[in-house]
Each structure stands twice: as structure tokens, then as C-alpha cells.
Design goal:
about 260 residues; 7-stranded mixed beta sheet; 4-stranded antiparallel beta sheet; 6 helices
């Protein structure tokens, strides 16, 4: 599958990521994810693969309890993550076609799943999760929203550098409406960067994000080889999908498995 050009935030602006999104803001979310996986598995996972791990913010907390292998399509974002979690294994690859040749107790896909903009993309990413999952493992997928809960809105954020310099980042994110029948919408960022001498530069960065109804999610999990997913609501009011591999079909007497 041919990858689309990366948004600026994950390419030329990627080294500014720690001022866009701080690792320390993800302590509670990482704990919730680990707890949800442990509850599903009946034990703490022994090793987690995260697809689309970005700058490693959540993984930086998970790794304090569980070994992690991190995958991202952006080499520059992996560089940011390596600085944060130098002892974690990192793999640069598109999550739709990654094949490591080994399995894990758990696979996680956070909001990077939003960059799957067609049903084919969604099935491909979930299939990657399935082929890397142990038979008794579990996948947890945390989309920002499903089609039934999506509402266009405007958000803002950003942080100052903590190193005593004048460096800072601020952004406004403008989520556009979904066109009738579409499985994706645009998210426009205005990103302002203040460099050490106080100069401010402004960049526009458009992201194309997927938006699928619940039924399409269930169909994608099924197509990827999972049993029907369990849906949970996390403390931030998102619908989170947790699924186990679908057991192989038992063969009929004297026959072969399907």
C-alpha cells in the first residue's frame, strides 16, 4: 500500500512534538489502558506492541511496567520517541503492512488509527494487529470518535519549553464537517512556533482523518480475524474497542478445519 505524504506535524515539525503534546499529561491514560488490558487478559501483559506510537508519550508510562515495542511510519517521530524511551525497541513502518514475525500479549493502537481513512485501510491496520497477537492476547484500539459521536469543533493547546529558552508552541485545531457518505474528514491546524530569539512562525497543516460508524468498526474487526469487539467508555468519554483473536473453526468429525 502506498503511504500518503506525512502531515508537517510528523515530518518537518516533528522535533517540536514535545511542546505540542507532553508525556506527563498521559499518566492516567496509560494506567487506564494497562488496567483494561489486564482485566481482559486476566493478567498483566508480558509485552505490548504499539502501532502508530508517535512520540512515545503513552508508552513512556507503560514501559515502567511492561516491555514495549513501538512502531511508527515517521522516522522523525521515532527519533523523538527514542530520546524519551531509549531502551524501547522502535520499528519504522506503515502499520498497514508491518510484519515483525513475532507475536505479543497485547497490541495497542491509539489515535493513530484515525489516519486510516478507508475501510480497506482500517482492515489492514487491524490485520497487522491480529497477526502480531498471541492466540490468548488482546488488542485495544482507542479512536478519538466514531461516526455517531463525531462533532466538528475547535480546540487549542501547546506548551513552553522547560529548558529556560524562549521556545514555545501553540496551536488551534479546526475539525471540519464530514461530507455525506464520506469515511474521512479534514482537521486543519494553525501551528505557531516561537524560536529562541522570540520570532514566531505560523504554519498551516491539514490532516485527513477517518470516521467510521460502529457497524463498520465491527465489520473491520471481523474481517481482520477478531471475535466481536467489546466496547468500553474510558474516563475521557471515548468509545474504546477491545478484541480477542477469533478461535479457529473446529473441524467436523473426520473433516478439516475451515
Amino acid at each position: 500500500m502506498k503511504a500518503s505524504p506525512l502531515p508537517r506535524l510528523y515530518a518537518g515539525l516533528a522535533l517540536w512534538w514535545p511542546l505540542f503534546s507532553r508525556p506527563e499529561d498521559y499518566v492516567q491514560e496509560a494506567a487506564w489502558i494497562l488496567g483494561a488490558l489486564a482485566e481482559t487478559l486476566g493478567r498483566q501483559p508480558g509485552h505490548i506492541l504499539e502501532l502508530g506510537s508517535g512520540g512515545g508519550n503513552i508508552a513512556s508510562h507503560l514501559v515502567q511496567s511492561v516491555p514495549v515495542t513501538l512502531n511508527d511510519v515517521s522516522g522523525t517521530m521515532i527519533e523523538v520517541s527514542r530520546r524519551l524511551i531509549p531502551n524501547a525497541e522502535h520499528v519504522e513502518s506503515d502499520m498497514r503492512n508491518l510484519r515483525l514475525g513475532k507475536t505479543f500479549d497485547a497490541v495497542m493502537i491509539h489515535d493513530a488509527i484515525m489516519y486510516m481513512t478507508t475501510a480497506r485501510d482500517l482492515v489492514a491496520a487491524l490485520t497487522t494487529a491480529r497477526v502480531h497477537l498471541a492466540p490468548d492476547g488482546a488488542v485495544i484500539v482507542l479512536p478519538d470518535y466514531v461516526a455517531e459521536t463525531y462533532e466538528p469543533r475547535v480546540q487549542s493547546g501547546g506548551h513552553d519549553a522547560g529548558d529556560g529558552s524562549a521556545r514555545a508552541l501553540r496551536y488551534t485545531a479546526w475539525a471540519q464537517p464530514v461530507k455525506s457518505g464520506a469515511t474521512a474528514h479534514d482537521l486543519d491546524f494553525a501551528i505557531m512556533l516561537r524560536v529562541a530569539d522570540g520570532t514566531v512562525e505560523v504554519f498551516h497543516d491539514r490532516h485527513r482523518l477517518g470516521v467510521f460508524p460502529r457497524a463498520a468498526w465491527r465489520e473491520a474487526f471481523n474481517a481482520a480475524g477478531f471475535a466481536p469487539p467489546e466496547t468500553r467508555h474510558d474516563p475521557w468519554h471515548r468509545e474504546v474497542f477491545i478484541a480477542r483473536p477469533r478461535p479457529p473453526t473446529a473441524p467436523p468429525p473426520g473433516g478439516k478445519a475451515a
